Amino acid sequence: MIANDVLQKRCRTCGDEFPATTEFFYRNKGCTDGLLGQCKACIGEKAKVYRKRIEENRQAPAAERRCTACGNIFPGTAEFFGRKKESIDGLNTQCKACWNAKTLAHQKEVDQRHPEVRERRLAWHRAHYRHPERHEHKLAWRKEYESRPEVQEHRRVWSKAYYNSRPDVQERRRARAKAYEGRPDVQARLKAYRKAYNRRPEVRERYIARENRPDRQAYRKAYKSRPDTQSHRLAYYKSYNQLPERQDKARERRRRPDVREYERIFKHNLRARKRTIPGIHTPAQIQEMLKRHHRRCYYCRARLRKNTKRIYRYEFHIDHTFPLSRVAGTDIPANDISYLVPACPTCNVKKSDKYPWEFAEGGRLL
Questions:
Q1: How far apart are alpha carbons 22 and 274 in whole angstroms?
Q2: Which of 4, 87, 210, 308 has the most C-beta neighbours closer than 10 Å?
Q3: Which residue, 66, 68, 70, 94, is CA-closest to 82?
Q4: How do 340-343 and 317-320 pair as beta strands?
Q5: Radius of gyration (Cα) for the chain, nearest Å?
Q6: Euclidean distance between CA atoms 54 and 90, whole angstroms
Q7: pLDDT score at 366
Q8: What architecture is domain 257-362?
Q9: pLDDT of res. 5
Q10: Cα(353)–Cα(292) distance, rounded to whole angstroms?
Q11: What average pLDDT does the structure give for the chain?
C-alpha cells in the first residue's frame, strides 16, 4: 500500500464511499475503526426529518393524552405535560403533577440518605443565584410570573379565604411590622429608599399624570378652598418659618450668589409684567449673553471688571436696549433676552431711559 493512499469507507445508508476520516464520519468508540457506519450527510438528513416530524406533532391540534403514572386523561398540551425533546410529540409521558411529585420524592430520599448532597446543592444554589446576572434574571422572571392575572387571582383568593382572615395571623403581622419599623436602622433605610424612589423619572411621571387628572384637580381645589384648611396651613407655615433652624437655613440660602442672581432676575421679570411688557429671561440666558459678548460692555467695548462674589464673576448691569418705561403698553418684547445686553455701570447710568440711537456716546445706532 502506498503511504499517501487513504482508506475508503462505504456508508451503509446511501452506499457511497468516502475517505475514512472524521471529515465525513462521526466518531464512535464502539465501532472497530472508531467511526460511525453512516456518513455525516445521511445523519444530517435523518435529523432534519426527525425534527420536522416533532415540529408537525407540536403544531398539530391537541389530542387527549393519558398520564402513565396516575392514569388520568388530560389534553395533550404543554399546560398539562412537561416538554421532552426526545419524544415524538415533544411532551413527557407523565403529567406535571405526577412528575413534580416524583421529582420531589426522589430529592427527599436522596437528602435523607446523603445529607452532604443536600448541603452541596444548597451551597451551589447560593453561589449560583448570588451572581448579579442570574439574580436579575430570577427577579425578572418572578416579577413576570407574579404579574399574571391568574396567579394574582389565585393568591388573592387563597390569602383571603385561608390565611389572612385568621386573627392570630393578623395580630402577629401587626406586632412584627411595628417592631421591625421601629428600629432606627430600618427607619433610616426606609427614608433613604423613599427619597431615592421618589426621584425616579418614571415615578415622577406617574405622579404628575395622576395629579393632573380632572378629578384630582377638582378635589385639590375644593380642599384648599375650605376655610379650616386655609387657616390650618397659615398657622403651620407661620410656626414652621419661626423655627431657629428654618430661619438660619433661609438666611444662608439668601446669601448664595446664585439665589441672589435669581432674585434679581425675578424682580426684572416682575417689573416687566407689572407694565404688561412681554418677554422673560433666565440666569442661564444671561450667562450665554455674557459669553456671546466676550464679557465686554456693549457700548464702550471695555472689558468688564471681575467680581468673584457674583455668580457671573463680573461686575456689569443688564441693560434693556428698549427702556421699559418707554415701551409700556406696546407689543414690543423688551424684556426678552434678544433685547438685553451687558453694560458697564457707567454706560448704563449715562444711557438711562434712552434708545440706542439716542445714546450717541455709546456708538450704537441699533
A1: 92
A2: 87
A3: 94
A4: antiparallel
A5: 41
A6: 6
A7: 47
A8: Orthogonal Bundle (1.10)
A9: 66
A10: 24
A11: 85
Q: In 10 A of CB 318, how many CB atoms?
A: 17
216-260 pLDDT per residue, tens: 999 999 999 999 999 999 999 999 989 999 899 888 888 888 888
| Residue 146 grid cell | 407574579
User: What angle, 0 to 180 degrees and rounded to 10, lies between the N-to-C axes of helices 96-113 and 115-129?
Assistant: 120
Residues near 278 by Cβ (< 8 Å), separated by ≥ 6? Answer: 272, 331, 332, 333, 335, 336
Please state the domain extents for the chain: 1-60, 257-362
Question: In the chain, pLDDT over 70 holds for what percent of residues?
Answer: 95
Residue pair 98/67 in contact (Cβ under 8 Å)? The answer is yes
DSSP SS3 for 36: strand
Closest CA to 347 of 332, 325, 363, 331: 363
Compute how many other C-beta atoms are within 10 angstroms of the C-beta atom of residue 308.
7
Which of the 8 DSSP states describes residue 82? E
- Residues 272, 275: Cα–Cα separation, whole Å: 5
pLDDT of 337 over the 50 cut: yes
Amino acid at 127: A
Q: Hunting for cell 446523603 — which residue is that?
A: 114
CA distance 346 to 339: 19
Q: Where are the alpha helices (DSSP H) in 243-298?
A: 244-254, 257-274, 283-292
Q: Return phi, psi of residue 287, to 5°.
A: -60, -40
Residue 268 one-letter amino acid: H
Cα–Cα distance measured from residue 194 to residue 136, given in angstroms and rounded to the nearest whole number: 22
Task: Give the C-alpha distances (Å, rounded to integers) separating 69 from 76, 103, 362.
Answer: 15, 13, 101
Q: How far apart are CA 146 and CA 152, in angstroms?
A: 6
Do residues 361 and 350 touch, judged by C-beta distance below 8 A? Answer: yes
357-364 CB contacts, 8 Å cutoff, 24+ apart: 359/299, 361/299, 362/298, 362/299, 362/300, 363/299, 363/300, 364/298, 364/299
Give the span between the Cα atoms of 30 and 128, in whole angstroms: 37
Q: pLDDT digits over 160-189, tens only?
A: 777 777 788 888 889 999 999 999 999 999
Neighbours of 291 (CB within 10 A): 11
Tell me which amino acid residue 192 is: A
Q: What is the DSSP letter of 163?
A: I
